Amino acid sequence: MYIIVGGGGDVGYYLTRNLLSRGHEVLLLEKSSNRVQTLGEELGQSVIKGDACEARIMEEAGAQRADVVIAVTGEDEDNLVICQMAKKRFNVTRTIARLNNPKHEELFQKLGIDVTISPTKAILSLIESELPGPHFIPLMTLKKAGLEIVALNVPPLSPVSGKKLSQVHLPRKSTLAMIMRGNEPLFPTADTELQENDEVYALLSSEGEEELRKVFGNS
Length: 219
Fold this sequence. Notes:
CATH class of the largest domain: Alpha Beta
Largest sheet: 6 strands, parallel
Domain RCK N-terminal: 1-119
Low-confidence stretches: none
Protein name: Trk system potassium uptake protein TrkA
CATH architecture of the largest domain: 3-Layer(aba) Sandwich
Pfam families: TrkA_C (PF02080), TrkA_N (PF02254)
Helix content: 25-40%
Number of domains: 2
Number of helices: 7
Mean pLDDT: 86
GO cellular component, one term: plasma membrane
Oligomer: single chain
Order of helices and strands: EHEHEHEHEHEHEEEEEH
Strand content: 25-35%
CATH topology of the largest domain: Rossmann fold
Structural class: alpha/beta
Domain RCK C-terminal: 137-218
Shape: elongated
Distance between the termini: 44 Å
Radius of gyration: 21 Å
């Protein structure tokens, strides 16, 4: 698989190194001469000087034959330009963009970026999951299916505590995939009884989020 990575910061460097170790053909584009020299000491010909926002550079990099283009610069605007150019001008099948500001996620999705990765959002979710009290955390969005994976807990006095799943009215287009009870993973059936402090992982449509919160008492 041929992968072009735009942005030679720490994320771009570690990503390129990892992809190369897995046997992929990877080209890292970085516009800073000093940074290219530093990266070249380890990555060799897999890193070249060039701004991935420029069509000429992307053409020279062989974007027309790339399977994936990944934009991981420190600027969301640049990442959007890189991915849009890859899609519209070079017909790249898969584009992945780093999001520095989670507020831009909806815009990126509307403009056709296949996958967005937000380190800030991921860190906030991890922190929230460690805080006491009820929580409802989106973990992953499956854009093409219109679904997402969420984690939520069963708080004290939850209306579902002590009930079997067959007695719980879940939203349409939702399913409970796994329950963590302490350190033990449980794969639920209709007879599984929910308990306080259970950590529940669910797959559901975005429209069902609010309803699921109410069902579990997380609203």
